[in-house]
Design a protein that fits this description.
By secondary structure, this protein is mainly alpha-helical. The protein has one domain (6-69): DnaJ domain (Helix Hairpins, Orthogonal Bundle). It has helices at 6-11, 13-19, 28-41, 51-69. The termini are far apart. 14% of the residues are buried. It comes from Neolecta irregularis (strain DAH-3). InterPro entries: DnaJ_C4 (IPR052763), DnaJ_domain (IPR001623), J_dom_sf (IPR036869). Pfam families: DnaJ (PF00226).
């Protein structure tokens, strides 16, 4: 039996797309648009009352975008 750590999921290319809420065959424009929308929505400065949560989400969104961009 194999167990995956949460980090394994973050490195899975298919999961990178799902983090951004797009399909794996999304265009560059769709990827950029999804990233901009999510990064604005979950920016820690917009939600100081939930700083820890939004910081974690924001980092995850950035990591997904960077992973797709350089894959």
């Amino acid at each position: 039996m194999s167990f995956k750590s949460p980090r394994d999921d973050e490195d899975d290319p298919d999961n990178l797309y799902s983090i951004l809420g797009i399909s794996s065959n999304a265009t560059e424009s769709q990827i950029r648009s999804a990233y901009k929308h999510l990064s604005k929505s979950f920016h820690p400065d917009k939600h100081p009352e939930n700083l820890e949560l939004t910081s974690a989400l924001f980092k995850k969104i950035n990591k997904a975008y960077t992973g797709i961009e350089y894959s």
